[in-house]
Records
---
Amino acid sequence: MKNISNKQASDKLIFALDAAGIEEALSWVDLLSGHVGMFKVGKELFTAIGPKIIESIKQNGQKVFLDLKFHDIPNTVARAAEAAVKADVDMFNVHAMGGSQMIQETVSAACACADKLGKARPIILAVTVLTSLNNDDMAEIGFQKSTNELVLHLAKMAQKAGASGVVSSAQDIAVLRANLDNKFVIVTPGIRGTGQEEKDDQKRTLSAYEAIKAGADYIVVGRPIRKAKDPLEACLQINQAITAGLAAR
């Protein structure tokens, strides 16, 4: 039986900080610090507050995943990556569909900027296919590949272009682990509780235990904690599921 520490489990949990303002956001940081490994700042919060939220989280001694899914011409995304490094984020993402040149230039710019400033290089992820999309959505958009096929294609391209890893559905983990080495980071959003009946915009989901057991390096959890009657207890239960998933590998 593997001996998994509480910190090993909590380090793999990223909380989606989907708050309307800075006071609400920081109240979540205060509540969950020490129980999650990183706080994810997405479009809603960053658009409302801007870089100040990153600074505030870092001042609390916590790590930041900047989830803005950069997708533009290579030069523009590379400059955005440099800004992310200067803001001291620990992880950020780009859209894999921006192509290999965009990813290559972004990785190069971010690493050069981090080295120049004496900072740790951030984890740079490529978003493959959103967890809100399924095979029917892919066909509607015009893709002939299934979600699994497209995820693997984009992940291989991103790895070759220098990305640290990908953001992918838990249901894509098996095919990614079978085709890519274990050093390639997999971050999995869309985590839902076992038997959770709530209907939302996530279509390709698994539980925390299932995702970690399958090989996810990090899981992103938002609503199952945020909407719980006791958010801290929900967080602790997810950490227990992560511990069990790690032990079952």
---
Amino acid sequence: MSRLVLLRHGESEWNRANLFTGWVDVDLSSRGQDEAGEAGRLMASAGLAPDVAFTSVLTRAIRTAELALAAMGRSWVPVVRHWRLNERHYGALQGLDKKQTAEQHGLDQVKVWRRSYDVPPPALAASSDMNPAGDARYAAVPRDQLPLTECLADVVARFVPYWHDGICPELHAGREVLVVAHGNSLRALIKHLEEIPDDAIAGLEVPTGTPRVYELDPADPCRVLNAEWLGDPADLAARAEAVAKQAG
């Protein structure tokens, strides 16, 4: 039976500071490094042994994959990095304090920007230093594919084709796959895998540093038979609640 593991990166420096991050490249906090190592130990104790890993091109996901694989004694596993696994682009909200943004615009508006399926935040100015068009890691990406803001539907549209073309072939080859990405890019993939309706996805929280394990159909390795979070239920609930409360 094929297995797929999804892992949100550990706490980043901007998670700790409660800032909207999006495509801004931010490293892990010391707590995030601990979460990444603990996720690796948790996966190893559950008998997981990924043959290949996929990450975004953002440092917090790359470092989480490195630390988790090292904790599993599998630093040799090949890692594929692709921009389509990046976090949702938060547009002009990037770099802003989440609680202060809620105080300025109202909790309801910020909830729409953070959790609605098809309403993006205000777009980033093309002249901004945060425009990904000026970042060397996206030099080969067509300019019209680089966002200045995104809603979750946009993330589904860019990630799901890569799921089919880049990740599914590994599962069909019988390999165990680890995907290390971000809260919203993983929400997009979970929505697709678990067929969550558009109007229900707002209630899904993806805790940092917490593996989600999928058992897949041997006849169709991209079809889910079962899914579960690894870890202590009380700790999982606390991490999910912390994510939900970030905007105050």
---
Amino acid sequence: MNSDLQKLIDLQQVDARIAALKTEVAALPKHVKEIEAKLAGSKTRVEAAQAAMKADETARRKHESDIQDQQQKISKYRDQSLNVKTNQEYRALMDEIKFAEQKIAASEDKILEIMVAADARKEALKQAEAVLKADTAENEKEKESARLRTAEDEKELAELTEQRKQLREGVSDDVLRHYDRVLKLRGSALSAVHENQMCSVCRVMLRPQIFQNVMTNEQFVTCDSCQRILYFIPPPPKEEPAEAKPKQAEPVPEATEAGTGETAAQ
């Protein structure tokens, strides 16, 4: 095979690996952001549970304060009822006391609801904190894995870049320009041809003379359809048929004693 053609085959493999590594390196920061977004969601759920408990505590204290206010009003109204002069004034004070007692009952119901919900709030917070802890550990693990993967990819990229430079040396500028142009346009610059006489990428049948030229692997031949540089991969050697083993003669059965005796009798 033409040495420059072999270099281009190797170069395409290196370029494909470089492209894959660059894609992976570019995707890693996005992966880290997705991990951090998941962790942020866990933090938000914990904060929401904490805020709900804090809001319940604030509401409970407000209801307790309202109860104290109403109890003070009731005490004041009872004291005033001792000094009223008319039944009308007395009934008015009793109505105020009744209204205050109703407000106390409503506040007590609210406090009871908060107390009943408190256990569920605590359990929700406990679960959210457990998920946050697990997500935090997973976050650190995934980020460290991403950092290690990035370092490994960048190291391999540096090695491949140097290998790419060496492979390109010695290949003519015209061939490299064609290679680079088709690689950028098509994603690959070379295509294998097998005994079916087709370009293995675009699946176009080659003309007989073109196929004969490709089979030598000694010159640069391009596909008329996709412009990729063609190279021939010969078929694997056919296995020799196994030699037929000589047929063994079947063994002659031995005569039985009875048969021998019968023969002798005759």
